[in-house]
Specification:
By secondary structure, the chain is an all-alpha fold. The chain is built from 12 helices and no strands.
Length: 237
Amino acid sequence: MRRELPEFTSRLSRGETIAALLYLPVHLALLPLALVLAAPYLGLGETDLNLILYAVGAVYMLLLLFKFLRRDFDPLMDRPGYCLMEIITNYALMYLANLVVASLLMVLLPQLAEDNPNNSAIMDMAGQNWGKMSAMAVFLAPIVEECMFRAGIFGTLRRYNRWAAYIAATLAFSAYHVYAYAVQDSIYWLYIIQYIPVSFLLCRVYERTNTIWSSIFFHMLVNWVSMNALQMLEELL
């Protein structure tokens, strides 16, 4: 018998929804542009710029979405074991899905399987300062991105149509990781395929546990493992 999902009760208020969604263009375009223009005067490198971008975003989310984050902390504390098992289960599903995607790319699009531009950029920035890059990827980015994509997009649409929420949040989060490269060469849009499994499963963890903190911690785990894997790869090369 198929188990029915509990009612999805994790919701932003109207003001919180506006705050989360309005930050998307700020994070994607306005703040990066301002930081790039200011970089020559401040003597900042690419790693510093990204750290500031996500630090500003994390402070914004913690301040404007504090009540939401506090509300969603209760379901995590009510069922910590269940939330942990969902994180572990969905990480395993992501690992298997990534293997399938990687295998398909090797056969169908071998040129894409060789090098992901986002991973290359992360490795380059990590080479400049591993500590700053790790802090950004493991602690700051999950808070900012989960509040925008899961709480903002998925959580808002989930009230009206479950599958529309999954599709919109999954595609938006996947495109977010490649759009900067795809505007230079449209072939990079195909890298969206590599991000669909984790994008979908982050939504699934959020929905099944009814707390944004589960997807935040899941996201932190994914980025922590990825950063360590990239470090080992860099050492081998």
